[in-house]
Specification:
Strand content: under 5%
Largest sheet: 3 strands, antiparallel
Strand order of the largest sheet: 1-3-2
Structural class: mainly alpha
Helix content: over 70%
Oligomer: single chain
Length: about 220
């Protein structure tokens, strides 16, 4: 695979990250420098840099006697992950509610909701439309972090959401699940729009609990 030498590490990181999130590289798989060097036709330095970033993001683990291995999320890990994300999303909503530019925040949420609904006006979706819907779904949550004014919360959530994406990609291609998620997002949006922030938090946590059920269902099918 030919890469732009000016950004080797960045490109390798992005490619491996996407492969992990979409389970092209499955959970628990060992990543060796030799295999990655053969794949990308580069020296070990940019690969090590990319793997370090993936480790910092929580997508791979370094083991002294094994090397680098993709994380392997068990049932308990997934349960903890969704509970923790729910708590962080709740904090993000409360913090974002204090941001001075509420009109801009609400406008972004509104655009996301409307575009998601437009996509679902079709009976079936293309791969590109599924990808767009998934990005919109993620964006809905991230808007609150954009306006929460707390960099530590945003950084902590980013790491957890990377792990969550591995699991959510398993069920977010299901049209019926998408529509349920869309309804839940709409409920959160309306509560926030009406400045009922406690209700928005309640709805967000309920949304994550339901998403956990989807996740566990798909994990059990593997």
């Amino acid at each position: 695979m030919k890469l732009n030498k000016a950004t080797l590490s960045e490109q390798i990181y992005t490619i491996i990250r996407n492969d992990i999130l979409n389970q092209v590289i499955p959970q628990g798989e060992k990543l060796t420098l030799k295999n990655l060097q053969e794949r990308f036709s580069v020296s070990s330095t940019p690969i090590r840099e990319a793997l370090t970033r993936l480790s910092e993001e929580g997508l791979v683990n370094y083991y002294s006697n094994i090397g680098v291995t993709v994380i392997n999320l068990k049932r308990n890990d997934v349960e903890e992950l969704y509970q923790f994300i729910g708590d962080m999303d709740a904090l993000a909503i409360f913090y974002a509610s204090e941001h001075p530019d509420q009109d801009e925040l609400i406008e972004k949420l509104d655009r996301i909701i409307k575009r998601s609904m437009e996509i679902h006006e079709k009976e079936t979706l293309t791969t590109e439309e599924i990808g767009e819907w998934t990005e919109l779904s993620d964006r809905f949550h991230l808007v609150f972090y954009d306006y929460c004014g707390n960099s530590r919360l945003t950084t902590a959530a980013a790491k957890q959401r990377s792990q969550l994406t591995i699991v959510s990609n398993m069920y977010q291609a299901d049209l019926a699940v998408q529509k349920e998620i869309e309804k839940e997002h709409t409920n959160i949006y309306h509560a926030y729009l009406n400045k009922n922030y406690e209700e928005a938090v309640k709805q967000m946590k309920a949304h994550l609990r339901q998403s956990l059920k989807y996740a566990l269902h798909y994990i059990e099918l593997q």
